[in-house]
From TrEMBL:
PANTHER family: TETRATRICOPEPTIDE REPEAT DOMAIN 7, ISOFORM A (PTHR23083:SF464), TETRATRICOPEPTIDE REPEAT PROTEIN, TPR (PTHR23083). It comes from Massilia pinisoli. Keywords: TPR repeat. SUPFAM superfamilies: TPR-like. InterPro entries: Endocytosis_PI4K-reg_protein (IPR051722), TPR-like_helical_dom_sf (IPR011990), TPR_rpt (IPR019734). This is Tetratricopeptide repeat protein. TPR repeats lie at residues 40-73, 74-107. Pfam families: TPR_7, TPR_8. Involved in endocytosis. It comes from the Bacteria.
């Protein structure tokens, strides 16, 4: 049999299977594989027919042959995976689905089955792989509705609450999902959208979802909104001035001063009478209406608003607003009750994403415009409670209008963030401390607003968080002050919480600084002197209630003297001189156990070198270089050199040894000074009793 005949039998097997003549199809496929054992399609037709006959045992062998002959045929690997899964060999099935996706990364059936097969594997790698598959299916519009819940759950679990909320919303629109409303509420709550969370909890209750935690969670959210409402009520200043009322929306039924909409529906005479009454009032009162204070309009404008009711769909949309007094007051005057509770908890809540397209087409643009104006005013006034309230949810806008809600607010926040960005640039040339940064953040209540800004304000979070991170890095680079840099960096966390990429950088910086702080703290030292603890740390030196910062210390001295041989007794000294008095004197005597005491005393000296000496040496050098004369024990120190005693045959005189002629050595607990050209000039300064003897030695070493 030649290839043409094999192909004919293969096509016949496919045709017979489509006609339901499975036994005949199997015989044709067998004939094709017998005479064309290298023909992958012949084996494929045989495998499909055997699968239809529920003969997975023989189908398995046929599919193995298919994948051997056509390793890039994704459908073959997929069917093989199905057979292994039917036999309960899940690991083998998963491997075959992965092979299918290696052959074709967009093979949707394999993605669906692999995602389902990985469901019970709770390992991090399997969870990430499953999320990756479901995301790809969603992007390709191949995700089945019954997988939406799992996709949403994984998104929430993996730290993507905004995307999870959209998936739960889609699920509840397409399927009857009691648990989905509950999970949606939890996701809204995580996003800070408490009003939306309350509505989702209430919807779960209305459709019969049962969970022991539901009443408590719902009450908690309601309590938070009630507390926020109380705070807002204590600030009576309206967000919008009266001349800003009704700028974006005038409800036609409110304009008609209607008691109920049903009094006017299908009642043309009653509607006409109400219209005429409005026009008369406008004419008599120069555009004012007694029942709508703050509104001024002419007849033409009034007629255009009333003519909207000629469209039944628009009528219905305006009726929804008219019957929701809180929503109407927000759209008309910018009042906030719409975001803080529900007027009638006995009826199902309105979920904005479930509103019909017509309602959103009519109301969405005006809601977005009003929301933008009110939010902008709240930020401009630094009214943090109002800003928090506006971000609680219940935005009646279609996705295409959502961005219009934030346009003005983004511009204001950009202006508020600009000084901080400028400060970050300035930090390249000078030290910028925590206090200065906090003052800039406090201006315009920026620091108070940041925690409430949702993910839609990623640009603000990125600008502020990036600037704060930059300031922390700059501060450490200039001052090597890890604790202060860490405090600055912590200010960026409120932004990093909204931006995963920034969070990764901030966490890495925080770990680095904490490691540095831990290393630095390992260099701190302390010992009990008298009844108080003597400590030397980055903050300075403290003993009991006395404390000296590094910058306030202008002198040091230390030493160790044996005061008795029997029993062995040592006196230990480490003292710090304050610029304005308040010296800290650490002097103690110890009998026995001298090695341990010497170790602790040495650690104090090491800590002094690490935390204090740079400041003291800097102050000492500055005094000399500015022309001041310094007294160190028996010598005088100035810009020209060190003045010390020079012994003659009979008399001792004072002589100044220039810096380049000075010799300086530490010998047996003393600083020994001399001159290269004057062998009789010398000074012996005990380190224990001479303020800054060791500092003079360090300074002299630098002058060599």
């Amino acid at each position: 049999m030649d290839e043409v005949e094999v192909k004919e039998f293969t096509q016949r097997a496919s045709q017979l299977r489509s006609e339901g003549r499975l036994e005949e199809s199997m015989l044709a496929a067998r004939h094709a594989t017998t005479h064309g054992p290298e023909d992958a399609n012949a084996w494929w037709q045989l495998a499909l027919t055997l699968r239809r006959l529920d003969d997975d045992g023989r189908a398995l062998s046929a599919l193995e042959r298919v994948t051997e002959l056509a390793p890039h045929f994704a459908a073959g690997w997929y069917e093989l995976g199905l057979v292994y899964e039917a036999f309960g060999q899940l690991d083998d099935a998963i491997a075959k689905y992965e092979m299918a996706l290696t052959a074709d990364s967009e093979h949707a059936p394999s993605m669906r089955m692999l995602a389902r097969a990985l469901k019970d594997d709770k390992s991090a790698s399997a969870t990430q792989r499953r999320l990756e598959l479901l995301r790809a299916l969603w992007d390709a519009k191949e995700l089945p509705d019954n997988a939406l819940f799992d996709f949403a759950y994984l998104l929430a679990d993996q730290g993507e609450p905004a995307h999870a909320a959209r998936m739960y919303e889609t699920y509840t629109c397409r399927l009857d999902g009691k648990a989905a409303y509950f999970n949606l509420a939890l996701t809204y709550k995580k996003l800070g959208r408490d009003a939306d969370a309350l509505d989702a909890f209430d919807m779960a209750l209305f459709i019969g979802f049962e969970d022991d935690n539901l009443p408590r969670l719902s009450n908690d959210v309601h309590g938070k909104l009630r507390a926020l409402a109380d705070k807002i009520a204590r600030n009576p200043e309206p967000l919008l001035a009266e001349d800003e009322w009704y700028q974006h929306y005038v409800n036609p039924f409110a304009l008609l001063d209607a008691d109920t909409v049903e009094d006017l529906r299908n009642q043309p005479k009653a509607l006409q009478k109400a219209r005429q009454a409005v026009l008369r009032e406008i004419e008599l009162e120069d555009g004012h209406l007694a029942w709508m204070p703050g509104l001024v309009l002419d007849k033409s404008t009034a007629l255009s608003r009333l003519d909207e009711l000629n469209d039944p769909d628009v009528w219905d949309a305006h009726q929804v607003v008219f019957e929701d007094k809180a929503l109407c007051s927000f759209l008309s005057r910018g009042e906030l009750d719409h975001f803080l509770g529900r007027a009638d908890p006995s009826v199902p809540p309105v979920m904005p994403y479930q509103l019909d397209e017509t309602t959103l087409r009519v109301l969405g643009p005006v809601f977005a415009a009003q929301y933008n104006r009110v939010l902008t005013r709240a930020i401009e006034k630094g009214n943090v409670d109002a800003v928090e309230c506006l971000f609680k949810g219940r935005r009646w806008v279609a996705p295409e209008h959502a961005e219009h809600c934030f346009e003005g607010a983004r511009r204001v926040l950009e202006r508020l963030a600009a000084p901080l960005v400028t400060l970050d640039d300035a930090a390249d040339g000078r030290t910028v401390g925590l206090d200065e940064i906090q003052r800039v953040l406090a201006a315009g209540s920026l620091s108070s607003l940041l925690p409430h800004l949702p993910m839609e304000f990623h640009a603000t979070h990125n600008a502020v968080g990036g600037a704060l991170r930059g300031l922390a890095v700059s501060h450490f680079g200039r001052e090597h002050d890890a604790p202060q840099a860490l405090e600055i960096l912590k200010l960026a966390k409120v932004c990093a919480n909204k931006l995963p990429a920034l969070a990764h950088l901030v966490d890495a910086d925080e770990k680095t600084l904490n490691d540095m702080i831990a290393e630095e703290r390992s260099k701190e030292a302390s010992i009990t002197v008298g009844r108080a603890r003597l400590q030397v740390t980055r903050a300075g030196v403290s003993h009991g209630d006395s404390q000296l910062s590094p910058g306030s210390i202008v002198g040091v001295r230390w030493g160790m003297t044996k005061t008795s041989n029997a029993p062995p007794t040592m006196r230990y000294t480490i003292c710090f001189q304050g610029r304005n008095g308040g010296d800290i004197l650490g002097i103690w005597t110890k009998v026995g156990n001298l090695d341990e005491q010497r170790s602790q005393w040495s650690k104090l000296i090491d800590a002094a070198f690490h935390f204090v000496m740079a400041s003291v040496l800097g102050w000492f050098a500055e005094q000399i270089e500015h022309g001041h004369q310094m007294r160190v024990g028996s010598v005088d120190v100035d810009r020209d050199g060190v003045t010390m005693d020079e012994k003659g045959w009979i008399f001792t005189s004072r002589t100044t040894v220039p810096w380049h002629q000075l010799t300086s050595q530490l010998v047996n607990g003393s600083l020994v000074l001399g001159s290269l050209s004057k062998p009789k000039a010398s000074a012996d300064l005990p380190l224990e009793t001479t303020w800054n003897a060791v500092v003079l030695h360090l300074y002299a070493s630098k002058k060599e």
